[in-house]
Amino acid sequence: MRPVPIDRRLLLTGLAAALALGCSPAVAQDADPGAIVGTEMMVPQRTVLAYDGRTAWTDAEQALAASFARLRAVAGQLGLNPSGPPIADYTDESETDFAFRAMLPVAVAPTAALPSDVRLVSLPGGAAIRFVHEGSFAELEVTYERIDDYLVARGLEPNRSLEEYRKDPGTPDATLTVDIFIFR
């Protein structure tokens, strides 16, 4: 189960305000061995295949894995090659469940019609702080707690976040590498 450890919308607001005042988190690492490193970067705008879903937190890993598989299957049927790893955007959250948008970047727009459950959208880019999670899906909560500590320590609040999966959830060895982008 991956409960929401922080109110990401609240954090994003503070991050935007701090950056507007000229604060720059750049790359930093605290003396705390459990601290997380944030890297400031520009994330490019991307064209993505998108699938919207809703699931219980207890089913999150399987739901995201199935959604990414669905998007890869649609891309394959349309002769499209993914141009990057799959992405998750949590669009609504409660104590028990969440809504999400699973996305798969593609280099070119499809020429054939998309299935009714998949859309082609433009994913905005922008200035962000990238954090890296390496571990199980269940351990993402700990990573978000560390991100929260990082942002609070710097007086930053985010305005949105995305997870980019370098390795899909549900993989047999249960070790993920996820880039978490906190946009300012």
Outline of this structure?
By secondary structure, the chain is of the alpha+beta class.
Salient structural properties:
disordered N terminus; 184 residues; single chain; globular; alpha+beta
Helix amount: 10-25%
The number of distinct helices, counting runs of at least 4 residues, comes to 3
Q: What structural category do the secondary elements indicate?
A: alpha+beta
Strand neighbour order, sheet with most strands: 1-6-8-7-3-4-2-5
Low-confidence stretches: 1-31
Distance between the termini: 28 Å
User: What percentage of amino acids are in beta strands?
Assistant: 25-35%
Overall pLDDT score: 83
Q: How many domains would you count in the coordinates? A: 2
**Radius of gyration, taken over Cα atoms and rounded to an integer in Å:** 16 Å
Shape designation: globular
- How is the biggest beta sheet arranged? 8 strands, antiparallel
Order of helices and strands: HEEHEEEEHEE
